[in-house]
Amino acid sequence: MMSGGGGGGGPGGGMGPGMGGPVGGGGDGRHDDEAALTEFLSSLMDYTPTIPDELVEHYLGRSGFHCPDLRLTRLVAVATQKFLSDIASDSLQHCKARVAAPIKDNKSKQPKDRRLVLTMDDLSKALREHGVNLKHPEYFADSPSAGMAPSTREE
Amino acid sequence: MGTPAKRPFDAAAASPIPRRFQAAVSAVSTAQILRASGYSAAEAAALRALSDVAGRYIESLGRAAAAFAEAHGRTEPNVADVVLALEDHALDGFPGASDPARPVLCSGALTELARFVAAVTEVPFAKPLPRRAPGSGASKGWESFAAAEREPPLRHVPHWLPRFPEGWEERFRGRGEAAAKDEEDTGEVAVKGSESFAAARREPPLRHAPHWRPRFAEGWEERLRLRGRGEAAAKEEEDTGEVVTVMANGNLVENGRSSVPENREKVLFRLGDKRQRRRQALPPEKCGGALELFVKRTEKLM
């Protein structure tokens, strides 16, 4: 299925350093791995990523990636989704850590657990570990709640 | 951008979702991913920033994959290129990264992805997005002179540029006429007004003024002195009394006595400046007559 697909060179094409791998017993192993990969790629067609295909193709087109194979587009979409959910979970941990740290009275902690808001602060901390530097100015004094603590300011 | 498209429909397939639409779509997708991770709300700025980062991540993956493909002499990336790009982007590493002879197609990055896909619940995008059909051909929206086999109407226009729209001549002429009408009164004077010191064979009265600049208007010394002393306001008063009261009251009053005295200075100052500027642009021969009317009319409108 891989070599018959429209995805270009397939495994026989530019494999890179992988072809120098084990030949003898690894031959069967490679088939298994390819089978696993094939299965994974076909399962991608059943799974619809949250990021729509057209959007992914648009962004990929801007960087010179043109591929008629939809499975690769789905692969990139899923990779981006994983990236975003990693960032989301990291910033969620930051948020929860911030809520847990000050020991306030119990009844004020409950509503905060139920309503978690993504703030620029948490986001920039989470992104920094993934290699993105995001700096957000503190506040613009254009609203009555400017400058207040972010947890009390919900949008 | 990477390699150019081989077929016309390739360019069309990769082309324009308008930028705000794309930002909105990516914001919605990002919001859905955030919600699936447990967030119930997000700051607007944070959502926009994260969706922008997501778009850039996709672009970065695409660029890396295209680069790997080109390094192997291909123009279209395949799955191996994408997997290598993914491994490149795994900043925290992935299992099996230390093995330089690792098989690409079953790399640790892929297994991590597979685990993620198995674990996460599917949240597809709600509405279908418009997409150009790949075989529909690139409609540029314009046609060059050469393609339309017409001669460009103006000599300096090359034939490979897009055609002029229909009716451009009337629109162009109409605009030109409106401009010319304004220029009518001052048409003959404009040339005279911009005579330089050198052309008039006169020495610039002030040392810093170069001789190729236009001549100062007649009577400039007097006006300068008067303005410096603030008497220009008084001098202007009798000339522009009518104009001032039109401005201050909003209705036409001939004599200058019924305007509000306390505002008059301020109004005078503004108008006075405007009149001064206009005067210095043109020699004083033309300051009476048609120009006066023109000034009054525009200031009434203001």
From TrEMBL, chain A:
One of its GO terms (molecular function) is RNA polymerase II general transcription initiation factor activity. Residues 1-33 are annotated as: Disordered. GO terms for cellular component: SAGA complex; transcription factor TFIID complex. Keywords: Nucleus, Transcription, Transcription regulation. GO terms for biological process: transcription initiation at RNA polymerase II promoter. InterPro entries: TAF10. Residues 1-27 have a biased composition (Gly residues). It is found in: Nucleus. Transmembrane segments: none annotated. Belongs to the TAF10 family. This is Transcription initiation factor TFIID subunit 10.
Automatic annotation (TrEMBL), chain B:
Residues 174-204 are annotated as: Disordered. InterPro entries: BTP (IPR006565), Histone-fold (IPR009072), TAF8 (IPR037818). Its main location: nucleus. It comes from the Eukaryota. Keywords: Nucleus, Transcription, Transcription regulation. GO terms for cellular component: transcription factor TFIID complex. It is found in: Nucleus. One of its GO terms (molecular function) is protein heterodimerization activity. Coiled coil: none annotated. Residues 19-96 form the Bromodomain associated domain. This is Bromodomain associated domain-containing protein. The lineage of its organism: Eukaryota, Viridiplantae, Streptophyta, Embryophyta, Tracheophyta.
